[in-house]
């Protein structure tokens, strides 16, 4: 239980750091994120070949934004958390998953317009991933 608490605290710290990095104008594009800290389709680092199951996708229908990571969920290997963040660093929502959840899907009601959104996904084995920018 102690390890799980430490892991969750670390995950929250990483999420906050990524939100800050995304809000920094010089790091706004996913291809300019620091190497080895935040991973993306363009910057897979040591996890090359893992991007398909770790980079979250964003789907927008009206004011509903769905974030999905196409990743299996098991006790040994699962998506821990999603966040939805604006280009300004405003966290619009976050969702913690359990290894017993069937899928890594989270939905948010977003009233914000004319913003660029990023989704993040944290895997318990393959670190922190960010989506491509999505304009709403």
Automatic annotation (TrEMBL):
Residues 50-131 form the Desulfoferrodoxin ferrous iron-binding domain. Pfam families: Desulfoferrodox. The keyword Signal applies. Keywords: Signal. Residues 1-28 form the signal peptide. This is Desulfoferrodoxin. It comes from Shewanella intestini.
